[in-house]
Amino acid sequence: MYVCNCFGVTEAQVKKHAADGACTPRQIASACKAGTDCGSCVRRIQALLGRGACPTPTRGLVDEGQPVLAEQLDEAA
User: Fold this and answer.
1) Does the model's pTM come out above 0.85?
2) Quick one: which of 27, 39, 48, 66 has the most CB atoms within 10 Å?
3) DSSP states along the chain
4) CB-based burial of residue 2 (10 Å sphere; 0-12 exposed, 13-18 middle, 19+ buried)?
């Protein structure tokens, strides 16, 4: 099922990026552009990520506003 029609990003792709470490809609956008055009898919991406999408150590960094796993996101794109 498509999550982002603008860029043809599927639910499976979003889940794979999340499994690779992307735990915010912004990180998903960096990995595959989903959510960067019309923005109608951002809520769906948030729902797919869910509250427990980030491992505990990463969640702390995200909550502090620090960059997380940028290298992994670049590799996944």
Assistant:
1) no
2) 27
3) -EEETTTTEEHHHHHHHHHTT--SHHHHHHHH-TTSSS-TTHHHHHHHH-TT-S-HHHHHHHHTT----HHHHHHH-
4) middle
